[in-house]
Specification:
The protein is α/β, with parallel strands linked by helices. 18% of the residues lie in helices and 36% in strands. A hairpin with a 5-residue loop joins β7 and β8. The longest helix has 11 residues. This is Glyoxalase/Bleomycin resistance protein/Dioxygenase superfamily.
């Protein structure tokens, strides 16, 4: 018996907005469109699913979807130019990361981050 991958599902009020945000802006590949759910592949394994029949039970700022990249500043510029509100990228010395936060169209907290060299 072996786990071969994972999907974390979130509620969405608009599948079209989720598709535009995660496919077109973030650049994730759409793995499967199930009609009520969109499942996106993340490089390196794992998937994010967004379903219009699930209710958002998250608290403000919780959970956080973190996407790892070497191009934090490029993602920041792309999202800002698309009118997405983002925090400024900063170095977080406690966790030795460079990152910024934003939200997807449903208000899920999204972090774009890279680990800094030790």
């Amino acid at each position: 018996m072996k786990v071969i991958n994972s999907i974390v599902f979130f509620g969405t009020s608009n599948l079209g907005s989720a598709r535009t945000f995660y496919k077109d802006l973030i650049g994730l590949d759409l793995f499967k469109d199930q009609g009520k759910c969109l499942i996106f592949s993340t490089p390196g394994g794992g998937m994010l699913g967004f379903c219009n029949h699930l209710h958002d039970r998250s608290r403000k700022g919780d959970p956080i979807i973190t996407l790892l990249t070497e191009n934090v500043d490029e993602f920041h510029r792309k999202l800002i130019s698309a009118g997405v509100v983002c925090t400024d990228p900063i170095v977080n010395e406690e966790f030795n990361i460079y990152h910024f936060f934003t939200s997807d169209p449903d208000g899920h907290r999204l972090e774009i981050q890279r680990f800094l060299e030790e």
